[in-house]
Specification:
There is one protein chain. By secondary structure, the protein is of the alpha+beta class. 60% of the residues lie in helices and 10% in strands. It is built from 10 helices and 4 strands; from the N terminus they run H-H-H-H-E-E-H-H-H-H-E-E-H-H. A 4-stranded antiparallel β-sheet has the order 1-2-3-4, covered by helices on one side. The longest helix is centred in the middle third of the chain and has 67 residues. It is elongated, with a radius of gyration of 37 Å.
């Protein structure tokens, strides 16, 4: 009977355990409209979250940079290590559901007479040796406290995994945006270089006319001022280009290779096109945005924490049990008849704790409400980001077309003004104004085209694209 008592008690305890005080989880309603503003026309194709980033960013130069960043970026590396830490913490909490079996050995010698240690004839010495295999203070989870803590740790672990995906999405979008900025920087540098050459030619021509008394010093100084303005702009853009390259190198975790921006004189027109992706419905974001899924897992974890706080009001039952051998002689420790066992359950019932358990429960409920607000805010933020990107897609195309047409018109105007000035028909001010307008229009056309490409990247990111890969390891 003695040998059967312990396993029978353990089995009964495990069967009784399992009551849960965790509130039933209900996903909060999405606090956004059911459609995006304007109800834009949806292009055909798979959802952005289902498009691997290799298929969206098809330019070989950018593709290589993204791979470098995924391998070397320190922020992404920290996100991966955070997952490992959260997984380990979950395993620690989960292990509390099971009894920890350990082997212990002990030995003691004692005597009621303190002088016996110096004089062996002063009194008797008692000895006790034991070796035991058993369970120490295993909490039997009658009211689900340990399971609730396990569920909380699981929610935090899953939230960390989703946060890692969100970090990858942000990293890929940042690399693409930074690379496009570098391409635009190079195009603007070339444009400024050409403009500087044109203005220096105007200075030379105006100086020659001034020396011959055909034009005034006012015309010469105006042309000289425009040339110096172009030099200052060129120096500023060189600085901006170097700073943008430094920012991209930080994202890559490595220097930016020269081949990454080798596009010749085409600039942004050399970039391989990115496909349009359908926006879908706002409700789709709940499943496609890693940051929203991470916020929901944090909400689930906070909900589970309420169950653990509620369980603090109920008795806590723990069990200590051992089976082994004991003897007063070390040499007889494993002899026949030296077997020993113990079965020691304990119950702790909270009676007075000065309101600690109530405060813990109130804190857990407040934590859940905070998590609800953060979850709803993440949905609202995602809705706004997608709506902004859709607004850009609907308008930037026409803006690019119009500004390129304006730049072409200003180019024709400049050529005509230059011809008229050389033939003495137009004034120098007309020529200089045409130069200034042409340079401004060309800069605006490049900048708007950059915004259009970056908006495509932003829309892909805000729709949850970037964490899926062709090999399925995203």
């Amino acid at each position: 009977m003695t040998k059967k008592l312990i396993p029978t008690a353990l089995a009964a305890a495990m069967l009784l355990a399992g009551c849960s005080l965790i509130p039933t989880y209900e996903r909060p309603a999405a606090p956004v409209p059911t459609t995006f503003p304007g109800d834009p026309a949806q292009p055909a194709g798979p959802a952005a979250a289902a498009v691997p980033w290799e298929d969206f960013f098809t330019d070989a130069r950018l593709n290589g940079l993204i791979r470098t960043a995924l391998e070397n970026n320190r922020d992404l590396r920290v996100s991966v290590l955070n997952i490992e830490q959260a997984r380990a913490q979950f395993q620690v909490q989960r292990s509390s559901l099971f009894p920890a079996v350990g082997l212990t050995g002990s030995g003691s010698r004692s005597s009621p007479n303190p002088y016996q240690a110096f004089d062996s004839s002063a009194g008797s010495v008692s000895s006790q040796y034991s070796v035991n295999l058993g369970i120490t203070a295993w909490e039997i989870d009658f009211f689900g406290r340990v399971r609730a803590l396990k569920d909380q740790a699981l929610g935090q672990y899953l939230a960390t995994e989703e946060s890692r995906k969100a970090a990858q999405v942000s990293l890929i979008a940042a690399v693409a945006t930074g690379w496009l900025t570098l391409i635009a920087d190079d195009e603007l540098l070339e444009l400024t270089r050409q403009t500087l050459g044109t203005r220096e030619e105007s200075v030379r021509l105006t100086k020659m006319r001034f020396d011959n008394g055909v034009s005034s010093e006012l015309d010469f100084q105006a042309a000289n001022s425009l040339a110096e303005t172009a030099r200052a702009s060129y120096a500023q853009q060189q600085r901006t280009r170097m700073q943008d390259e430094n920012a991209l190198a930080l994202l890559l975790g490595a220097p930016v290779p020269a081949s990454a921006t080798a596009g010749g004189v085409k600039g942004l027109d050399s970039v391989q096109p990115m496909p349009d992706v359908p926006a879908g419905l706002p409700s789709d974001l709940l499943a496609e945005r890693p940051d929203i899924r991470a916020a929901e897992q944090q909400l689930i974890a906070a909900n589970a924490n309420i169950g653990a706080a509620r369980a603090n009001f109920f008795p806590r039952v723990s069990l200590t049990t051992t089976l082994g051998t004991a003897s007063s002689e070390f040499s007889g420790l494993f002899d026949s008849g030296s077997k020993a066992w113990s079965f020691a359950p304990s119950v702790t019932l909270p009676i007075f704790d000065a309101g600690r358990n109530r405060a813990t429960l109130d804190s857990a409920k407040a934590g859940r409400e905070i998590a609800v607000a953060q979850y709803e805010k993440s949905i609202q933020t995602a809705f706004r980001e997608v709506a902004d990107a859709l607004a850009g897609r609907a308008t930037l195309g026409e803006q690019v077309r119009a500004q390129r047409a304006q730049a072409e018109a200003e180019s024709v105007r400049f050529r005509l003004s230059d011809m008229r000035y050389r033939n003495g028909i137009a004034s120098a001010l007309d020529l200089l104004d045409a130069q200034r307008s042409l340079y401004t229009a060309q800069q605006s056309a490049v900048t708007t085209r950059l915004l259009q490409l970056q908006n495509q990247v932003t829309l892909y990111k805000t729709l949850g694209g970037g964490w899926a890969t062709k090999d399925g390891k995203g």
